[in-house]
Specification:
Blueprint (H helix, E strand, L loop, with lengths): L1 E3 L8 E7 L4 E6 L4 E4 L3 H7 L17 E9 L6 E10 L5 E8 L6 H5 L2 E3 L9 E7 L2 H14 L3 E6 L5 E3 L1 H10 L3 E6 L19 E4 L2 E5 L2 E11 L1 E4 L2 E4 L2 H17 L12 H7 L4
Antiparallel strand pairs: 1-5, 2-3, 2-5, 3-4, 4-8, 5-6, 6-7, 9-15, 10-11, 10-12, 12-13, 13-15, 14-15, 16-17
Length: about 280
């Protein structure tokens, strides 16, 4: 089934911004009304943290398109399986495939009845914090002990293809030693974690650390750790303040990092002084 898209104001043509890999698209009609396409809202706010998706441009130079949605249903026709987005240039009439949405949930009725999800302020971002650190394993272990035993944080750890589970500091450290790939999460109160842990700190009141990146600097090999947490979060499309208890935990953690590590490399960095001295000048 193929269906043309029309703005609530009646305008059938749009400027289009999209990201194929993330399966998100924003349509803006000539009247300036913004709408997210299909289920783009689920991922949009994460996508724009790294920059705005580019506006689609036809080879003729035009940037306005008519948009058609081609729905493909599952065998029993009970729900939508995929939606192909087709763009027809308002200038030269050329047609191109924009993006394909793969749908892995039910029900999907609203994808057909209301494909446009109005979004008056699509560029609003959540405040988020990223800290980086050049550490050796003992530094990470010390952080776990400090958060769990001194700050009384709830700790969760997941290994490669293993769901995250609550654990003590010693259990977390044992997992870090036994696995080459892991995810660490800390919370001020118990939280229910999703099966997919990637970037869940953006949506949940947690401080998250992943397996460090191994970098071969000109001066040697180092392990760069990332610490992430959100100061604000999007909940059901609405921007809300982070849990105050989580922010208090993060503040106490940063005070501990400042007392133990060096920030010579720049703002938001907390390096082991010896590692920084060994590797400096190599990046």
């Amino acid at each position: 089934m193929r269906k043309p898209v029309t703005c609530t104001c009646g305008e059938p043509r749009f400027a289009v911004r999209l990201r194929r890999d993330e399966q998100v698209a924003l349509l803006t009609c000539a009247g300036g009304h913004h709408a997210l396409l299909l289920d783009s809202r689920d991922y949009w706010h994460d996508v724009i943290q790294s920059g705005r998706p580019r506006e689609v441009r036809c080879r003729c130079g035009a940037r306005v398109f008519a948009v058609d949605l081609e729905y493909r249903f599952r065998a029993d026709e009970s729900s939508v399986r995929t939606v192909d987005v087709w763009l027809r240039c308002a200038g030269c009439g050329a047609q191109r495939h924009g993006v394909a949405f793969e749908i892995d949930y039910e029900p999907t009725d609203t994808l057909v009845s209301r494909p446009l999800d109005p979004c008056p302020d699509p560029w609003r971002k959540a405040k988020q914090t990223e800290l980086t650190a050049l550490w050796v394993p003992d530094d990470l272990h010390a952080l776990v002990v400090h958060l769990v035993e001194e700050l009384r944080a709830h700790c969760y750890v997941g290994g490669w293809r293993e769901p995250a589970r609550p654990c003590s500091s010693s259990e977390a450290i044992a997992t870090l030693r036994a696995h080459t790939s892991w995810t660490l999460l800390f919370a001020a109160r118990p939280v229910e974690l999703p099966g997919e842990l990637r970037d869940c700190w953006r949506r949940l009141p947690v401080i998250q650390l992943e397996t460090p990146i191994t970098i071969r600097y000109q001066t040697g090999k180092g392990w760069l750790h990332y610490v992430h947490y959100a100061n604000e979060r999007f909940v059901d499309g609405e921007l809300v303040a982070q849990d105050p208890e989580l922010l208090a935990l993060a503040t106490r953690l940063r005070a501990w990092l400042q007392s133990r590590f060096t920030s010579v490399r720049g703002r938001g960095t907390f390096d082991n002084p010896r590692e920084h001295e060994r590797l400096k000048g190599g990046w």
